Amino acid sequence: MKISDYIVLSNGVKMPLLGLGTFRIEDSLQIEEIVKEALNIGYIHIDTATVYNNEEGIGKAIKDSGIKREKIFITSKVANDDQGYETTLKAFNTSLEKLQLDYLDLYLIHWPRSLNKETWRALEFLYKQGKVRAIGVSNFLIHHLEDLLKYAEIKPMVNQIEHHPYLIQQELLDYCIKNKIQVEAWAPIMKGKVFEIPLIKELSKKYNKTEAQIVLRWNLQRNIVVIPKSAHKNRVRDNANIFDFEITEQDLYKINSLDRNERIGSNPDEIFY
Ligand SMILES: NC(=O)c1ccc[n+]([C@@H]2O[C@H](COP(=O)([O-])OP(=O)(O)OC[C@H]3O[C@@H](n4cnc5c(N)ncnc54)[C@H](OP(=O)(O)O)[C@@H]3O)[C@@H](O)[C@H]2O)c1
């Protein structure tokens, strides 16, 4: 299966358009099995975070896979509790140790918080040290990005946000494009809810693809990176089978029209933990 399409970030780093999401599969044999299977199928991009509590299992699976480090793109994220300059540096080293790696491909601020400035300075330091190939943010709205861009010496290369047919956030997407910030979609298949949307069901029949494949492909054709998660090997395989068909412009537009500005996850302006 071809799973190798990528986009080029503003600093020239290649980022695979499809990655494996790993939220809610904690350290266990299960995470090792799922990541091994994903790598075996051809995934070369894994998304994790300190708070997912699965970096050790992912590290083991990568090591056991025998795949060369430079062939795999690994993202992790600074937890809210670790924000701040020294605490971020420490958290980054802990992530590296758990993953058994000596650098990350992408390191993100998980949520906008009051200590973003200090945290961003730490990410810039890690980037300059060559410990991470690209740095970015997650769940940043336009006003968070505007604030960050005032003090950032290095601009964020990625913003990982909740993005799916019910939450398109077109203004935020336009702002990111204007500032050369690559958008990456979390909850791309709406945690399974895409299977219940009549238009997506209709398109699933029309293209002979699953509902998940339709919305993942819709993202790819809009140049948005996707990281669907599944704890089932057959679904991990199915979710990657999205490089052999094309959705028409008209159908892409129909999917866009489903937007309701409706979140599944937390509103970044209402995060208080
Ligand atoms: N930056 C952030 O704040 C943030 C927040 C949330 C998530 N993320 C990242 O984004 C990734 C994806 O988001 P997500 O996990 O929240 O949601 P998602 O990928 O949209 O959906 C995952 C859910 O859909 C089900 N599913 C997956 N493939 C399926 C298929 N082919 N058929 C039927 N059901 C399927 C999974 O069930 P099974 O597992 O039972 O198959 C799981 O319950 C996360 O894993 C994480 O890496 C980031």
Descriptive notes:
By secondary structure, the protein is of the alpha/beta class. It has one domain: NADP-dependent oxidoreductase domain (TIM Barrel, Alpha-Beta Barrel). 40% of the residues lie in helices and 15% in strands. It contains 10 helices and 10 strands. It has helices at 29-41, 55-65, 85-99, 116-128, 142-151, 170-178, 198-207, 211-221, 233-240, 249-256, and strands at residues 6-8, 14-16, 20-21, 45-47, 73-78, 104-109, 132-138, 158-162, 182-186, 225-226. Strands 3-4-5-6-7-8-9-10 form an 8-stranded parallel beta sheet. Strands 1-2 form a two-stranded antiparallel sheet. Strand 6 (104-109), helix 4 and strand 7 form a beta-alpha-beta unit. The longest helix is centred in the middle third of the chain and has 15 residues, at 85-99. The termini are far apart. The relative contact order is 0.14. The mean pLDDT is 96. NADP nicotinamide-adenine-dinucleotide phosphate binds next to helix 9. Residues 21-23, 47, 110, 138-139, 160, 186-192, 210, 212, 227-232, 235, 238-239, 265 line the site of NADP nicotinamide-adenine-dinucleotide phosphate.
